[in-house]
Amino acid sequence: MSLLDRAVVTLLPAVPKPVVRTLSSRYIAGSELEDARRVVARLNAEGKLATVDVLGEEITQAEEAQAITRAYLDVLDAIDADRLEANVSVKLTGLGLKLDEALARENLKAIAERGTFVRIDMEDSSTTDATLALYRLLTDEGYGNLGVVLQATLRRTVDDARALAGANVRLCKGIYIEPPELAYRDFDEIRDSFVRALDVLLDGGCYVGIATHDEYLVDRGIAAVRERGLAPADYELQMLLGVRPELGDRIVRDGHRLRIYVPFGRQWYEYSLRRLQENPKIAGYVAGDLGRSLFRKR
Ligand code: FDA
Questions:
Q1: What is the pLDDT of residues 82-122, one digit of tens each?
Q2: Tell me, what's the pLDDT at 166?
Q3: Which of 54, 122, 164, 218 could form a disulfide with 149 if both were Cys (CB 3.0 to 4.6 A apart)?
């Protein structure tokens, strides 16, 4: 962690909330469903798809997991009502995974029953087995509108990719800091794992969401789908709201499907702090952003 990153991470909780809000506003649609609706409609008008994430942190009671589930049902209503080109991304811990697996299962079913595609985000490595198991259980029960996420940082990922033939899989680097026995730390090793997992997924007939802002991996991913003669409807690229939009515009101009991850919710502040503290690199991005916006004003 650089000195600048360390300073930003340490000082962040002391930064006034409105300033954090301004810093994080390009990465978060807003605090209300209406904000997400507006942002998704704008993205759709730009030829981009979306996946909507309801922000929620650290569930300690079943009622909280149920409230998040209801919020997702409201999102699905809005997607239908506005005919948005969007699906949802859920976190199983938000649906109650750490309280009671059966609770998370029932909440996930309630969301999946609406029929819109549901991506199950991947969280830290303590949840990988349970997440993949729940995905398989519901898929075997006939829920055909579920997809999972694999993280290239994890050493197990290429094996997991082999076991997911035919599935709908988002492949990303992975945001969580994991112990070295479980995860690669080296930048090139992570890239290499990403490329290997992508090849395995594509050769296994998966629909892959190639989720990265790393231009090398975007280009490598596009080359991999071209080598296999896939049509644009057979894969998609995915990016986070507000991150490297010029790269996203290029992807759309070149005729690929691009899906933007759109987080919203009243927990935006907690989410921003957590993301910044969990991944010090983002602190650098935020500081860079602040720096750029300060320079722009002069
Ligand atoms: P890398 O971190 O090398 O970034 C490449 C470049 O992109 C950077 O140099 C920088 O310019 C820019 N950049 C990246 N992130 C930025 C940011 N936050 N702000 C500003 N600039 C940034 N992780 C996970 O563990 N589970 C999950 O379910 C998901 N889901 C998910 C969905 C989608 C659609 C995306 C795009 C990402 C995720 N992630 C995730 C996060 C992912 O694991 C990873 O942490 C980030 O995408 C950053 O990795 P990159 O591949 O972009 O490379």
A1: 999 999 999 999 999 999 999 999 999 999 999 999 999 99
A2: 98
A3: 122
Q: Is 121 a catalytic residue?
A: yes
Taking the CA of residue 261 as reference, the ligand 1 atom at the shortest distance is 34
pTM score, whole prediction: 0.92
- For the question of residue 124 being annotated catalytic, the response is no
216: pLDDT strictly greater than 90: yes
How far is ligand 1, taken at its centre, from the CA of residue 140, in Å?
Answer: 31
> Do the beta carbons of residue 125 and residue 97 sit within 8 Å?
no
Reading phi first (left if > 0) and then psi (alpha if -120 to 50, else beta), residue 33 is in alpha
Element spanning 131, H or E: helix 128-140
As a whole number of angstroms, the distance between CA 52 and CA 30 comes to 12
Host H or E run for residue 151: strand 146-151
Q: Which atom of ligand 1 is nearest to the CA of 260?
A: 34
Ligand 1 mean position to 296 CA, how many Å? Answer: 25
The H-or-E segment that residue 47 falls in is none
Q: Mind listing the pLDDT tens digit for each residue in 257-269?
A: 999 999 999 888 8
> How far, in Å, are 83, 280, 285 from residue 292 at the CA level?
36, 19, 10
Q: 239: CA distance to ligand 1 center in Å?
A: 7
What's the helix, strand, coil split of the chain in %, to 5? 55, 15, 30
